[in-house]
Design brief:
The structure is a homodimer.
Chain A: H1 2-6, E1 8-13, H2 18-30, E2 35-39, H3 47-53, H4 57-62, E3 64-66, H5 69-73, E4 78-82, E5 93-94, H6 96-106, E6 112-116, H7 125-128, E7 133-135, H8 148-166, H9 184-200, H10 212-223, H11 227-241
Parallel strand pairs in A: 1-2, 1-6, 2-3, 4-6, 4-7, 5-7
Helix pairs in contact in A: 2-3, 2-8, 6-8, 9-11
Chain lengths: ~240, ~240
């Protein structure tokens, strides 16, 4: 599993704003990755990048600076380029989720590069044609230009989700509840207690009950209260019912 | 569909860095949303926010500043708080994907708030207890503190993906290929042409063919070449085979 995280490289090509390098380093580390390669960054290293990287200074420090796109991906067995534009000759193009699933499926065995282009113009056609696969983040068509860090963040997050899912570590609902749910009998006893209290207080006329109890039953069924909640509610009903 | 995008509000509580307000506005607009509410931001409006918002200046301009968390969520029917920490009393807690699915399922009819806390300390327990649901982004346990914009970006992206999926607008593979795939017969004719060329050139000995043709057949089956690619390859074989 750790290998899978180490086998994914993030390549930033000709980044012009140093802050974006720092932000990308942070996003990469936040999602559990560490391999960052910079192809001819305009300014690097820099204070601005260090500041934006926050606690990901180690990723920034280990980042490798190379002279060419070819150097950055030379040892990679799957190269994925981020692409915003329509291409004259279509290339295999997937959305981030399918891209992440493919990376997760291969990252245990293969060295993979995710490549991000320039802030203003992305990757060149020549660079994109060095990629096996293109990935496109489906942004708002009215405002599609995603910040470089945002693109790194979204793809790093997607790959992390796929990797966690592939090992069963991804929990949809993180249910470490402190109390067990009430049983059907406990809930029924509570509902009867509630109805009795409503009648005794004069709120509910048993001759014309309408839908009141059905609505209460529906609400508490939906809530699925836990045992401590039922205990609190029943204590409250008892307290209300006491002769003053 | 457009209603669903308009029914999701992003609430930022006590944001201290104005750049984050701008970055959040950009992330929100990139993903097709527009409703931003700021609860007592430290500095707003600001040049820094405008600069970071880039083309999302309209979202920033329309952002509503309110005095309290209660004001920000008053009209919302589902309130989701982002949470990084373990709570003493557990609250229903989902991952971003399940959160996004729930938002997408409800956003057509209900007003929904996604609430983000302070850069350094998140949401208070009191604020979190005003939420119906908590969402947690499963970051690297060794470096879990996500930048505020990054959290907004990830959740806005996830909700966009769920909304696009719910209307069938999300394509896994964006296949607007320019040429139809080759048929089985076209591929077979090419393979035979290739084999013939290999034999004629002396590369392949038909007496001891080994696995060469099987490997070539496997490769071209896997590639699934389109009709123009097969035509180029066959033209090339013919050209190689010409007597000089």
């Amino acid at each position: 599993m750790q290998d899978s995280f180490q086998n994914l490289r993030f390549v930033l090509v000709n980044t012009s704003q140093p802050g974006n390098i720092g932000g990308a380093a942070r996003a990469i580390k936040n999602m559990g990755f560490s391999d960052l390669v910079l192809v001819q960054p305009e300014i690097f290293p820099s204070d601005r990048a260090r500041w934006r990287a926050a606690g990901a200074g180690d990723v920034l420090k280990q980042a490798r600076v190379v002279d060419s796109f070819a150097d950055a991906i030379a040892d990679c067995q799957l190269v994925i380029g981020t692409s915003a534009r329509e291409r004259r000759i279509p290339w295999p193009l997937v959305n981030p989720r399918l891209c992440a699933d493919q990376v997760a499926a291969e990252a245990g065995d293969h060295k993979i590069a995710l490549v991000f282009g320039r802030e203003d113009s992305g990757l060149t056609n020549e660079e994109l044609q060095r990629c096996n696969l293109h990935v496109h983040i489906p942004t708002n068509p009215d405002y599609s230009s995603l910040n470089l860090c945002a693109a790194v963040q979204v793809l790093a997050y997607e790959v992390r989700m796929s990797l966690l899912a592939s090992t069963g570590e991804l929990k949809e609902v993180e249910q470490e509840w402190d109390e067990p749910p009430a049983t059907s009998e406990e809930l029924e006893n509570f509902i009867q207690h509630l109805e009795q209290s409503m009648i005794e207080s004069g709120f509910l006329d048993p001759e014309t009950p309408r839908q009141t109890m059905t609505r209460m039953r529906r609400m508490f069924s939906r809530i699925r209260p836990d045992q401590s909640e039922v205990a609190i509610l029943r204590g409250l009903l008892s307290s209300f019912g006491k002769k003053k």
